[in-house]
Amino acid sequence: MLLEFSVTNYRSIRNTQTLRMAASNYDKGLQETNCFNAGVNGLLKLLRTAVVYGPNAAGKSNLFRALHFMQSFVLLSHSHQEGQIINAAPFALDSRTRKEPSEFEIFFIQDDVRYQYGFTVNRERVTKEWLLAFPEGKAQRWYEREYDAKADADRWYFGSKFTGRRQIWQEATRKNALFLSTAIQLNNEQLKPVFGWFQDRLATILPGAQINMQLSIDHCASEEGTQHIMAFMNSADISISGIMVKKIPIHPMKPEMLPPDMPQPLKEQVMRGMQGKEVPDIRFLHKTNSGESVYFHFGDESDGTQKLFAFAGPWLDVLAKGRILFIDELDTSLHPLMVRFLIGLVQNPEINKHNAQLIFTTHDTSILDTELFRRDQIWFVEKDHEQASRLYPLSDFKPRKGEALEKGYLNGRYGALPFIGELRF
After folding, report:
1. Domains recognised in the chain with CATH numbers
2. Closest Cα partner for 145 from 179, 115, 114, 116?
3. What is the pTM of this model?
4. Distance CA 362, CA 335 (A)
5. Highest mean pLDDT among 28-32, 51-55, 238-242
6. Coil, strand or helix: which one is 190?
7. Where does 151-297 show beta strands of DSSP type E?
8. Which among 119, 173, 382, 387 has the fewest CB atoms less than 10 Å away?
9. Pairing of strands 357-361, 49-53
């Protein structure tokens, strides 16, 4: 479960911006569907979904890129070679921030324990890293490292509750890698829930990324899985009677089909790489008025149907495993009612039994609806006069219960609108 995520000095984000998933006290609406109990003493209810609005180039996608960077760095920094550059990107429109590190911090719950984890990095090294655990609501500082520029060395602190081969893990951690990432590779058991949350619970779909259909295809390998995919699509009013997925072998290329100037070793490598490869042939079965069955190739279906099929496997996986899904521009190629359908699955406690969470960006203002979202679920991003992104919730404006949110947003009441000028030649 995600509680909140903060980022400082990354791409268009200069000052600290924080997305919170805790339900506010002032909004009592839609609690049975849009909220759930965190299961941890002392915590308020959490939100199942959050939506982020803002004009193009305001920084919505950079919020998601920041989370994806944090996740990737946790999972992969142990493999960084000595001297390898870190792909950090500080706010470039300020001479001060260009020289400062980027900071990422996240609060989450895993296995009924709340954690607070964060780090700061520049292009060369991790400058700070910290982890706190809150078993039974009491804070335990497990470890902290901080770079001392004068001594050109990290200073380490380990709490009494953090046990194991601390010295070995510390010495193995390179300056451009995280202690969390490194210690896991050296069989640290205590950090597995933290690392596992980033690996198994968090899913990010970045701007412009194609949805990988493999999960949907894998579901269709069994009759039960196929029925689940069909139920998902038909509940969205996509009328199909069956799905057929065949694996078609790729015929090996003959050497003469490759460029004549290609080196022979490369030709052999290409040919070996194609051996045993298959491509999926996806077809949907439709029924005519007379009851006749007609198969349509996947490419003959509408963009919306294709995207919904691609979404089906990941969406069912997110719901089944209680994952946290960040997705940029959810509405691309989808009708607004389809977007409502996908949101409704996450906000239905009878379907979302494992408390999955969805955070997404969109330009679709038709879902700015108090019958779909609470006021604390809606966020905006805009740029200030110094071109830095600012994230803020609708609840800052304390809108009235039942206020026409779409009209208010399009009229500029909440900001985060594009400035449309007059074109002159």
Report:
1. 1-209+328-425 (3.40.50.300), 213-313 (no CATH)
2. 179
3. 0.89
4. 12
5. 51-55
6. coil
7. 153-158, 202-205, 242-249, 278-287, 293-297
8. 387
9. parallel
